[in-house]
Hints:
The protein is α/β, with parallel strands linked by helices. Helix content is about 25%, strand content about 25%. It has 3 domains: about 10-135 and about 175-190, Rossmann fold (3-Layer(aba) Sandwich), CATH 3.40.50.620; about 225-285, Adenine nucleotide alpha hydrolases-like domains (SH3 type barrels, Roll); about 285-370, Elongation Factor Tu (Ef-tu), domain 3, CATH 2.40.30.10. The chain has 9 helices and 17 strands. β10 and β11 (about 275-280) form a beta hairpin.
Amino acid sequence: MNGYSGISRTILQDPVHVLISGGVDSSVALARLREAGHTNLTAYYLKIWLEDDLSGLGECPWEEDLAFARSVCSSLHVPLEVVPLQLEYYDRVVEYTLSELRKGHTPSPDIFCNQRIKFGAFLENLDKPGWIASGHYARIVRHSHDVQLHRAPDPVKDQTYFLSHLSQQQLSRLTFPVGDLPKGEVRRLAARYRLANMDRPDSQGICFLGKIRYPEFVRHYLGESSGDIVERETGAVLGTHKGYWFHTIGQRQGLGLGNGPWYVTGKDAEQNVIYVSHQSTVAEAARQRLYLNEFNWIGTVAPSGRYGVKLRHGPHIEPCSVQVCDAEARTLRLDLDHADRGAAPGQFGILYDGERCLGGGMITDAKDDSACVS
């Protein structure tokens, strides 16, 4: 086997710690490492399911995941350790998610799952030398002066959006053995290795929910509270909703309004009001200028200029002009080439310079230049 992204054969003596979820991607990552000649391998299953808090809301398949992980590790003759991180996950990711929802924002918990748990709490508790491998679709490029995060060749599966808050210290220990492969090739390799989960479907949604529906998770913690759905342009009350925290900017489904389609274009958390616009006028609510706060630069701070931005996970990268605003370069102003009607406070904008992921920051409520003094 040749060409996988990460560790070269010249450092096979170093231990490799592999995060395995029970899914096909991390399993193929482990198998590629084994086939490449790595003999000092240990697999780790991170137990972060919140089954005690979410019991009764739906199936929580961590036992099935762990069974697949054990089967794969057994077939590859790799020891497996189960690492319980439920408390850390609740404190560092779930609490953040609930806090953002209460503000009326749209959270991105998987970004912090990677930064604070998979490559945060896990590394804090590992206390062992060696490399950390996972099944993420991304590439790491090492230079003498820094470690860079680059997009995967598969634009649909690329996960740099969710890895954008990692630090140089975290990236310096990571390797992504399937990051250079398209998903179809990963499936073919899983079949060639005869892995137990080779036909298992990809997981969808937030990593701690399993098969629990996101609205049920939100309802469990935040409850319901009736509020008005108001047409943004006229102020007319069109209907009611069960809580602003169930809705996000750009949403079309689940509003229960006739004569649509209608889109969520704003929220008032204090008044529990959802603002909507009809398809005929929704373009007027789109935002072409955005501000990003608390920007995490993966490497050195990039100068103001032309870059690309992902406003959500997916293949699309929107060209934009970027103004680095403050002295510490953690506030940025973005002028998009095309306005976006789904950009919501609390979501993240991830910047790219070609294939390289520069980092990401949280979209703010700011709508004027007071947030950015050029």
